[in-house]
């Protein structure tokens, strides 16, 4: 699956449908790549590494995930990650709105499982590993298979696995209370959200470091250190990465000239756009568009 699927994890992306807000995304990235640029969304997410290793960050915590391990991200948490080692990585992200589990009326399930999940007073364990959470990981594997094959009635099975994960985690004493993060971490996270929202709203025009620093407020030097500590990227690298993702989407539309796309997403010079695009996507914009056309022709011939 091509790298533009990173766009699928942006907070303004619709995951699944109104009737069934659940979506699965599969990825494959080379060594050292940012597999998930810093972002957040209201939905919860199960992130499972299939091959390689990923250094994952949620708010201010870091988790070095290996193949066969998973992490649970509560809605609203800022998260990012990049591939570790020399092999790159392959993983699957299951994104869903916990509201899909709500009961039609306030019953025991709603009281004992769903409300605590929403409030984060009894939520799924953060880091799931085979030695401690094999049953939970088995449910995640089953959901990945169901979301790929989509047999009749698979929606019911997916909800069933989520309910069973909550039950089994509770029975094993593995539910966690994440309702109270430290006040300092909360302030840092809210500041980062403010900056990211500003970038995503204004990426199409020049963005000065000074205007980002003023949002918090901090000096430019303090802001750059803060942003790098929170996201693993410099502000410039994050802005360029976000712009490249927008450009990759526009490249799907053949009527858009590459030079126009560069300007539309905020790059002032086509040569700089091509250089940054190649660094992030491992190919030039024209090569990327060619791959998209070839992929489309292959899909039509199948």
Q: In brief, what are we looking at here?
A:
This protein is about 45% helix and about 20% strand.
Low-confidence stretches at least 5 residues in length (pLDDT < 50)? 1-10
Strand count: 7
- Using only C-alpha atoms, the radius of gyration works out to 20 Å
Shape: globular
Would you tell me the overall average pLDDT?
85
Helix content: 40-55%
Biggest beta sheet attributes: 7 strands, antiparallel
Could you say which structural class the secondary elements and strand pairing correspond to? alpha+beta
Report strand %.
15-25%
Tally of alpha and pi helices: 10
Helix-strand topology string: EEEEEEHEHHHHHHHHH
- N- to C-terminal separation? 16 Å
Q: How would you explain this protein's 3D organization?
A:
- The protein contains ten helices and seven strands.
- It is α+β, with helices and mostly antiparallel strands and 302 residues long.
Which helices and strands occur, and which strands form pairs?
Layout: E1 22-29, E2 34-39, E3 44-58, E4 61-66, E5 70-73, E6 79-96, H1 108-119, E7 127-128, H2 130-149, H3 154-171, H4 183-202, H5 209-214, H6 220-231, H7 235-250, H8 258-264, H9 270-281, H10 285-301
Antiparallel strand pairs: 1-6, 2-6, 3-4, 3-5, 3-6, 5-7
